[in-house]
Amino acid sequence: MRAAIAASMAYDTIMVFEGKFTDHILPDQIHKINLSFLSPRMRREYGGCAGNIAYNYKLIGGEPVPMGMVGDDFGPYREHYKRCGIDDSCLPEAKDSYTAQCFIVTDLHNNQLAGFHPGAMGLSAQIPLSQAGTVACGIVGPDPKDAMQLHTQQMADAKLPFILDPGQNILLFDGPELLALIERAPVLVCNDYEAELIADKTGLSLTELAQRVPALIVTLGAEGSIVRERGTETRVAPVPAQAVKDPTGCGDAYRAGLLLALAKGVPLIQGAQLGSVLGSIKIAVQGCQNHQPTLAEIRALYEAHYGAWPF
Fold it and tell me: pLDDT tens for residues 99-140?
């Protein structure tokens, strides 16, 4: 059940400003903003789409192979992966570079200011699919444009069952480029907002998009997800969360469920159900890789909501 996961690896640094941004922004001075927000609380989390998907895939018994260029500051993340038993052989370090980093300041109303430094991630196209060895399936997620094009082509050429998850990097592609990626993929997954972006970029409706790819899966946050394949459409109900503490990384957790379905030849609807279970577990914990359910707990939650465990 080895799976190649080609997407971003990143650190997330989150700071909390104990006030409201709007109290410090003067509407008549927005042409010359120069602000500093004292943030007494700060935490650094392991993140990135590949990083998060790999973590969740390991929780459900998979053997993830995350693929991405990282910087020479990756040491703590690598040690974390070793503790988790995650293969780090496709995470080479670029000398004198930083691992991709997202810096976020949030206020007490959950407004956010963020800056993203791609760092070594810009070199991820230097990692070929062949470096991952024998894998059962794969996923291509947000990454530099050239890396996404390369890994999509390599997975298609290898006739590997894989998921295309362009995410926030949809904006890197023009319509024909995006459609070329989609038409190589057995499965396209996106959230409802991203689905509208794809439709706008390609000029195709969701119904038309579903005819260009064997499976189209659209996530709807707390409303669940929709799986379209072979002319059918199935609504997958969500799993209610015990608490809502941090939605960041829930989509990556969901994608790990889809990946296990591909790896085991299980219907994608059941993969979406497992993804919903993982998302509900993740959202109750702060940070993208801090939830630690056992496989038995994941299975019990699945069976309570969807019936017999198919994996």
Answer: 999 999 988 887 888 899 999 999 999 999 999 999 999 999
Q: Specify the pairing of strand 162-164 against strand 10-16.
A: unpaired
Regarding the domain delimited by 2-8+48-99+121-306, which CATH topology (the fold level of the hierarchy) does it fall under? UDP-N-acetylmuramoyl-L-alanine:D-glutamate ligase (3.40.1190)
Domain boundaries, the chain: 2-8+48-99+121-306
Please say if 252 is a catalytic residue.
yes
CA-to-CA dists, residue 275 to 45, 184, 238, 253, 282, angstroms? 22, 23, 9, 6, 10
What's the pTM value of the predicted model, to 2 decimals?
Answer: 0.94
Q: Encode pLDDT of 151-206 as tens digits.
A: 999 999 999 999 999 999 999 999 999 999 999 999 999 999 999 999 999 999 99
Residues 12, 87, 246, 252: which is the catalytic one?
A: 252
